[in-house]
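Input for the complex:
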Amino acid sequence: MTSVDPSVIADVPLFAGLSRAEHEDMLRDAKAIRVAKGRPVFAQGEAAHSFFVLVHGHLRVMKLTPDGQQVVVRFVVPGEIFGVACAIGCKAYPATATAVIDSVVLVWPSAVWPELIARWPALASRAMHAIGGRLQEAHTRVVEMSTRQVEQRVAHALLRLVQQAGRKLDKGVEIAFPITRQDVAEMTGTTLHTVSRILSAWEERGLVEGGRQRIVVREPHQLFILAESSPGASS
Amino acid sequence: MTSVDPSVIADVPLFAGLSRAEHEDMLRDAKAIRVAKGRPVFAQGEAAHSFFVLVHGHLRVMKLTPDGQQVVVRFVVPGEIFGVACAIGCKAYPATATAVIDSVVLVWPSAVWPELIARWPALASRAMHAIGGRLQEAHTRVVEMSTRQVEQRVAHALLRLVQQAGRKLDKGVEIAFPITRQDVAEMTGTTLHTVSRILSAWEERGLVEGGRQRIVVREPHQLFILAESSPGASS
DNA sequence: GACCCGATTTGATCCATGACAAAGACTCTG
DNA sequence: CAGAGTCTTTGTCATGGATCAAATCGGGTC
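Predicted:
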């Protein structure tokens, strides 16, 4: 468990440019753990003792409101660092991360973070870059939620998923992990009913292909046009 | 212009714990500039050559959508660092920051950031902490936009404003800078009409007191209850 | 194959809130 | 004080989506 093959982080952008020896050094404090589909890596409210890098699999990060509604904050794809915004400062994880397929994550104790960045200052700026990117994404999402209507939000969400986790098929691009209408609804602030109706309409127009926990985007460009068009522009 | 009184940053949390000599050192690369009410500090899309700390005043940060709608991302209060998420990595500012009252900001060239954090590593983790807090706030807002209806969102927004920029009055707490119904609408993803109606209703119940570009919260606790109550809970 | 369970589809209805319109109210200026 | 410009209030109407309800589908299990 404790000894980790350094090659697993060879293509983590966060650690790019470090030598193999340095990789080994970083992994000294890390553990690799397997997380079965559906199981949480950490839960909202739990003490934030660790930060993580996803090696294999896909995670869904979601927040739970006081009255029990869920919102999907994002999906984590391999190579990403997560649970780190809190490593410095917050006591508890602000969200829950669960595996949508069997996954492998590297775990470091939060306590080693200062030591790691002391040894590799580039790590700090890369982490900051990652967090900055997420901040922008979050702001973009706020703007979208404020100004776009449901169909456009769903279009954007799908395009983002395709970009982050698209698997090329001859028919189009498939989202590489199981995803339900409910998930999409929780990403876009609507209901699974509305998402279902929208996808059905798109399917009729040949833009996407549906399925159980499965979405294939056939015409990303058409979807993009749909996402960008101003609310009143459709005839 | 170039020489800045070190005392101005004495109570910037980002620089807390540094000696006066260190303050002077940091300010060597900085300029202080005055920004008149209504003028921009930087504009969305502009090359991000600088990062900033607000010394006096208040700024509104907003994003403009392709079709011309505005969304208020946040208000900057004195002591906060801003425009830094981009200092590392983005070329252009992702939003526009304008002064809502006459303000004073410190300006550093983005290029000195690596040098500054090399000299004071604590700066990196504090900045990261600040960005992390903003990320959480943004996520909270996404959750709110997804799950709460307008009245609750407006309640939350007001409470946040009161917390960040509240000025204690004997009648209640006043938001310390001029703010329009339109501003609140752009913070909560609704229209100024709806905000006006909501504030009128609250005013009738004695929860707030309105005015031109002015909002006084009389009963923060009542507002809080309103903000938290689940959608269907009101009789 | 029969059954079960979660995911999806589709219909019908209702309502919060956006859109449009118009009339005050306040502030500043000359 | 008149006039202009900006904010704010309030009314009416239209509608995008939420909600409620129910059928159907697809996959896995015994």
